[in-house]
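Subject: Interface between my chains keeps coming out wrong

I've been trying for a while to get a sensible model of this assembly. When I model each chain on its own everything looks fine, but I need the whole thing in one frame so I can look at the contacts. Pasting all components below, labels as-is. Any help appreciated, I'm running out of ideas.
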Amino acid sequence: MALLQISEPGQSTAPHEHRLAAGIDLGTTNSLIASVRSGIAETLPDDSGRHLLPSVVRYGKDKNPVVGHAALAVQTTEPLNTISSVKRLMGRGKEDVLTLHDTMPYRFVDTEGGMPSIQTDSGVYSPVEISAEILRTLRNRAEESLGGDLTGVVITVPAYFDEAQRQATKDAASLAGLKVLRLLNEPTAAAVAYGLDQKPEGVFAIYDLGGGTFDISILHLKKGVFEVLATAGDSALGGDDFDHAIADWLIEQSGIDASGNHSILRQALLVARKAKEQLSNETTVTVELSDGKNQHWQGALDRDTLTSLIDPIVVRTLPACRRCLRDAGLKVDHIDGVVLVGGSTRSPQVRDKVTGFFGKPALLHIDPERVVAIGAALQADILVGNKPEEDMLLLDVTPLSLGIEVMGGMVEKIIPRNSPIPIAKAQEFTTYQDGQTAMVIHVLQGEREMVQDCRSLARFNLRGIPPMVAGAARIRVTYQVDADGLLSVSAREETRNVESFIEVKPSYGLTDAEVEAMLRSSFEHAEDDMQERKLREKQVEAESLLQAVAVALKADGERFLNDEERSAIDKCMNKLAQSKTGRDAVLIDQNAKALNRATYEFASRRMDNNVQQALKGHSVNEFEETSGK
Ligand code: ADP
Ligand code: MG
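Reply #2:
Try treating it as a single job with all components included. I did that and got this:
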């Protein structure tokens, strides 16, 4: 309890005043806004009674952005001005966007250091601005239907979102004039909607299959506190893939030549989506396709055919479920319940697969498309201070390990992946060279052992370290991840109390696909990495031994060594220096041991001399340097 407090917004000055708060599910395909009214959390509809707002924005020549269904309707006629799935671009850089270009054929414009923007007929817009447009629409909807200004909102993000993606989401909210009480992970929001936090104890899997993304999370509940144990997923898997599989089938059945004909393809996708959604409740539907000229086809699609078309896609969610269980250190029987989230979990085929995998029926009585927004609304209501007696603590986890670069290009992990947040962890480091007065703090994210295999998040310098013998300074580096998943890093030299600090807001972040790829490669390379790490450790040890011996030789070589001894040491040093550049860790180790043996006598002579000097009232501070150890 003492660890985590969700703070200041809850301090209502007037306890009986009801503040307006809302939860927002800012989705890739659809977005929703929900609020607690008369004690019940519900999503708010637009004027036409529609709850889902398609996450689509159209920027035409008239300079008046259009959001939602109206934008969706002109998507095929104005593909370059009508932006969908902007969530995929949030907090991402140029390289990330290049890989998305096939699915997002917009006119991207490079911007200085930030996210690439999109050129439209009414100007250039960044992903943050486009998302802000969606948020503004939802805000207006809520303020109209609730009859007042929103005090604050909770916005949900995928558990996989990294710092940059979370920051971009917050930026979009401020642009839309919204005060973000907190960003909340989507699976956590779904769990809140089901009131799982009210249970005494349990382990739950949240299976979220949306339009273009799949996320699986495992939550552990204990004494009203719940914690995300692990998350996994696939950022390129969702209902859209079902649509494509069905569309291909439709085109094949129709015999219409669709090669290079984009309009047939788009038509087939729309027909496919509609048929798929209907088949969640019906057993067969009529489907039609026409090339607009002389070819017209009509046929039937039944549930069995649909099942055979989408089954290969649905089963692709299962490896991530297995991985997530493994990360959480659990077996499938440990799961007490499964929650379904996302429009695609309406499909009976998906439900069957999930039930089969977890061996129990899933919780689904709350609309899977609305459940996230509802959970966010419940949380917002508490945070805004409408329910001060509530004591809901939500824990999330870090998706990837956060570490620091140490000598030899290695990464020392400070906060391991899947650590519950907020979290702060400190570790002490020291200097590598005598008299070193500055230190580079290089912050990295990833599971691999070597710097080049992890992602660089930030780099800063700690200056003003008092000059000391290598290894004597005490540098305390603290990593802190706040409840929104944002990282700050500070470094302090303990003897002088010099401090340096950085808030990590990288110009672009990682996609969940990259997170996945990084995790996968860390498993695949675990063995190589261990070898590589061992080698680098030996190389670093060798280098510092060589340096220490050189310093000692320079200081006392002539006094304490005869020619023969000196040349034996030189020989060992040469051998070690040579092997150090190679890749044979065993050889480096042998040569280092040989050098240690060769300098043993020399080191003891120096030590004896130092002791004698000390007895005469001189300082002993040179001990450590004669590292015969
Ligand atoms: P996102 O989280 O990506 O914004 P949603 O949770 O809104 O996505 O899910 C959108 C997906 O759900 C689309 O692929 C849509 O076709 C699918 N979907 C919606 N209703 C149904 C249904 N009745 N049966 C099957 N799929 C559905
Ligand atoms: Mg969603």
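Reply #3:
Confirming on my end. The two ends are 47 Å apart (CA to CA).
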